[in-house]
């Protein structure tokens, strides 16, 4: 059923499974990050929007003081 794990203690089996799952999760994470390519288009768009919003707020505050 479980292959060669039958002779191992239950705690050891749990550690082997936990290590395998952890390796899988990190593998998927790093594969995804590599596939995305590091360019975060959404963050670039948010930064542009924030910059424009701050410029508009600065212009509005200058116009109200004048």
Automatic annotation (TrEMBL):
Hydrolase keyword on record: no
Record's protein name: Cytochrome c oxidase assembly factor 3 mitochondrial coiled-coil domain-containing protein
Query: Could you tell me which Pfam families the record lists for this protein?
Result: Coa3_cc
Protein biosynthesis is among the record's keywords: no
Q: Which PANTHER family match?
A: CYTOCHROME OXIDASE ASSEMBLY PROTEIN (PTHR36744)
Alphabetical keyword list:
Membrane, Transmembrane, Transmembrane helix
Q: Which residues belong to any copy of the Cytochrome c oxidase assembly factor 3 mitochondrial coiled-coil domain?
A: 11-36
> So where does this one cross the membrane?
15-32
């Amino acid at each position: 059923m479980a292959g060669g794990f039958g002779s191992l203690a239950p705690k050891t089996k749990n550690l082997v499974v936990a290590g395998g799952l952890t390796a899988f999760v990190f593998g998927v994470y790093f594969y995804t990050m590599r596939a995305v390519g590091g360019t975060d288009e959404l963050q670039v768009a948010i930064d542009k929007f924030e910059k424009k919003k701050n410029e508009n707020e600065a212009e509005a505050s200058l116009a109200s003081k004048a």
